[in-house]
Design brief:
The complex is a heterotrimer of chains A (219), B (277) and C (249). With 277 residues, chain B is mostly helical. Helix content of chain B is 78%, strand content 0%. In chain B, α3 packs antiparallel against α8. Chain B starts with 5 loop residues before the first helix and ends with a helix. Chain C contains nine helices and ten strands. In chain C, α3 crosses α4, α3 runs parallel beside α5 and α5 packs parallel to α6. The chains are: A mainly alpha (219), B mainly alpha (277), C alpha/beta (249). At the B-C interface, α2 of B face loops of C.
Chain lengths: 219, 277, 249
């Protein structure tokens, strides 16, 4: 099938799929960052059971394969009388997994801060929360820009899990198998999706690189 | 040199009031977590998921042998896939660093392409398109090849950053001894570079291993696929998927631990790294 | 009645595991006094310095600042610390802010001073330590000596009653030590109460009022500077002075 024939027949669906992937990526990334921050707070708080829980959470979702998590959410949870719509299952999976990695990035971002700076702030009479707000968070955020950029691309790749359940509208991976089971879309059908993924990744990468150059901390 | 972790410097040694507060919150947190656990256990009990019919077969050797066979396939696919990814990644890295502008551009494009496209799309390509071309592939290769292709760009970039981390002086010293480019790269630069990137290569193995869980799409009898067979045999979905998920988590956890340990070991030894840092 | 001392330590003890790093230390430092602490590494002199604003906790004993016991936590501790300036070996300037911001930050955050006022005072202090022309740069763009002088300005911006210096020149290249010491000398001349942990014997001799010689967690000698350098009472102090002077040659 030629590219023009494919686009006249399925152009709208591709556009919808692209937006679906973007939307899913944006929501998942936002959710992952929020949960990642919460988990990171737990991991560095002085309450040891919460630290243990935070570390456990990260190890579980860092190491579970996306397919296994999605299957548990879609097929296993109903046996516990917990049923989510397909969209929500995909969203949960694409939030939980990147959130673990987000927390890891934030931890290493915080570890770039020299402990002496915290002591210096303390010696100046800053309280704990002032130190967190003025010294720790700004530095951790600014040195996490590139890892967060990579996290966003990784989140986008994870949203391809959406192809494993019936989504409406489909995202960029699901649409390829849809087209190929209906008519022989062939290599072209793949190429279009792949190109759209790649362009999105390149755009995210360029944006992240630009922000990083603006805020990078000289050491 | 050996800095304390951030969570240990964030808080100063607590005074008596702070100590009391920490004790109180520790107890509250324990209660909260116990409550969470109790809620999960209760949900299992209420829905009858603790019934022996969902668990008895885990006492049978045949169950574990069958899962083990699947696990061997999974590990095989992950190892072979990683090895292939390493080979392809190495070629891409060499092409991007040296080679003429056309080759350099091509390698850069391939790296960005494989890094920007989800593994699932490659898997569907091998599932839907490749059979039509007459290229006969076994199920094993139909999952291993796309996983390898998906990983090779990341490997190439990891290798490249390793090569860039080798101090410039090494190259200059070797040139001054009369080394030529090719020999210089294989004898001086690459052996040092590989030590920087071993941890990220192990981490890449984890990613490939996770990607192989899609093997059932191409009907390859990996751990996940064999779990599905067990499920239809015993009509016990939740228990089997849960156990399989735990197996995956444990394997990847151990690989990540290994990667951390190797990273620490390499940082401690090796004088070249220390000078570079 | 004697005036209230600026700093007073009563029978302070501290252990690191089995190591007894501060052994029954008692010490008073009067207002306006400049006290130098010398001694081999691991003698506990840094720990002593850091215990005074509770960057290190102590196991037993008491510490008083102007007659008030050093608070153990919370707001009272932070308030007390804001009255005690501290200068570190590794400068510890906040890497993400400019030099000017570094000096303005604590007066605004801790004392609630207005931005305009904090800026005026910060510029005055940077002028005084001679790095006003670097105000808009970030720490990593400055030399070690410039960073340390900025760090002194940052501590002075809180208008502390006493300044603690924990080996302020040990991380500096030799050619930069002088510029930092001259700022410290000027500060001493103006009557600042100072406790200085250092290996700079010339500074100790010419600027300080008193020298403490520490070894193995004990203060072995506490003498007026002139006396100490003319005729140290302790044999080990004499050996130490000699070894430092030889290594500097």
């Amino acid at each position: 099938m030629s590219i023009s024939a494919l686009l006249t027949q399925y152009g709208d669906r591709y556009l919808q799929a692209l937006f679906a992937t973007w939307r899913l990526t944006a929501f998942s990334f936002f959710g992952a960052v929020v949960i990642g921050i919460v988990i990171t707070v737990l991991r560095v708080c002085p309450i040891s059971p919460l630290r243990v829980f935070g570390n456990f959470y990260v190890q579980v979702f860092r190491n579970i394969p996306g397919a296994a998590l999605l299957i548990l959410l879609v097929y296993a949870l109903p046996y516990l009388n917990i049923v989510f719509p397909y969209e929500i299952c995909v969203l949960i999976a694409t939030v939980l997994i990147p959130s673990a990695f987000c927390s890891e990035h934030l931890m290493s971002g915080m570890n770039t801060i020299h402990p002496g700076q915290i002591e210096a702030a303390r010696a100046l009479g800053m309280t704990f929360f002032q130190i967190i707000r003025r010294i720790v968070i700004p530095q951790a955020l600014r040195s996490s820009v590139l890892p967060m950029t990579n996290l966003m691309v990784a989140t986008m790749l994870t949203t391809s899990l959406g192809s494993q359940v019936p989504l409406r509208p489909q995202e960029l991976t699901g649409i390829v198998s849809y087209i190929n089971t209906r008519s022989a879309g062939g290599v072209t059908a793949f190429a279009i999706s792949a190109a759209l993924y790649c362009l999105t990744a390149l755009f995210i990468g360029a944006l992240g690189g630009w922000i990083d150059r603006k805020v990078r901390i000289l050491r | 040199m050996n800095r304390p972790e951030i969570q240990d410097v964030l808080y100063e040694a607590p005074g008596p009031k702070t100590r009391r507060r920490i004790r109180l919150f520790t107890i509250l947190a324990l209660l909260l977590l116990a409550g969470l656990l109790a809620a999960i256990v209760r949900q299992f009990a209420v829905t009858g998921q603790f019934q022996p019919k969902y668990w008895f077969f885990f006492a049978r050797l045949t169950t574990w042998r069958f899962l083990g066979e699947g696990l061997v396939t999974t590990l095989g696919a992950a190892l072979v896939g990683s090895a292939l990814a390493f080979g392809m990644g190495f070629l891409l890295m060499r092409g991007k660093i040296r080679g003429n502008p056309v080759l350099r551009w091509l390698c850069t494009a391939l790296i960005e392409f494989t890094r920007g496209v989800p593994t699932l799309l490659f898997i569907y390509f091998f599932f839907l398109i490749v059979p039509g071309t007459g290229w006969k592939l076994s199920a094993f290769w139909k999952i291993t090849l796309p996983c390898a292709i998906s990983a090779c760009g990341v490997v190439a970039e990891a290798l490249r950053s390793g090569v860039n981390a080798v101090p410039k002086g090494q190259r200059e010293a070797a040139l001054s001894l009369g080394y030529r480019e090719t020999k210089l790269f294989y004898r001086i630069i690459f052996p040092q570079a590989i030590r920087f990137v071993i941890p990220s290569l192990i981490a890449e193995l984890v990613i490939v291993l996770k990607d192989t869980t899609f093997a059932s799409i191409v009907s390859c009898a990996d751990l996940m696929q064999n779990a599905k067979v067990l499920i239809s045999n015993y009509d016990a979905l939740l228990s089997i998927y849960l156990v399989v998920a735990v197996i995956y988590i444990l394997i990847n956890y151990m690989l990540n631990r290994l990667s951390d340990r190797v990273a620490r070991l390499l940082k401690g030894g090796g004088s070249a790294e220390r000078r570079a840092a | 009645m004697a005036p209230t001392p600026m700093i007073e330590l009563r029978q302070v003890n501290k252990h690191y595991g089995r190591l007894h790093v501060l052994q029954n230390i008692s010490l008073t430092i009067g207002k306006g006094e400049v006290v130098v602490v010398i001694g081999p590494s691991g003698s506990g002199k840094s720990t002593l310095c850091r215990a005074i604003n509770r960057l290190e906790t102590i196991d037993s004993g008491e510490i008083f600042i102007e007659g008030q016991p050093l608070p153990q936590e919370g707001k009272p501790l932070a308030e007390m610390r804001s009255r005690i300036g501290m200068v570190f070996q590794s400068f510890n300037l906040f890497a993400h802010r400019t030099i000017l911001d570094n000096v303005m930050m604590a007066p605004m955050d801790v004392k609630g001073i207005s931005k305009a006022e904090a800026r005026k005072e910060a510029m005055r202090l940077l002028e005084r330590v001679g790095v006003a022309d670097q105000a808009k740069k970030v720490p990593a763009q400055l030399s070690g000596g410039q960073q340390q002088r900025a760090a002194i300005a940052r501590a002075l911006a809180m208008h502390p009653d006493v300044m603690l210096f924990d080996e302020p020149t040990s991380a500096l290249d030799p050619e930069m030590i002088g510029e930092v010491l001259s700022v410290m000398t000027e500060l001493a001349r103006e009557g600042m109460t100072m406790l200085v942990v250092t290996h700079e014997m010339n500074f100790a001799r010419s600027v300080s009022d008193r020298v403490l010689f520490m070894e193995g967690g004990c203060i072995l000698e506490d003498s007026p500077s002139e006396e100490f350098f003319l005729q140290p009472r302790e044999e080990r102090a004499r050996a130490f002075i000699q070894s430092v002077q030889e290594s500097r040659k």
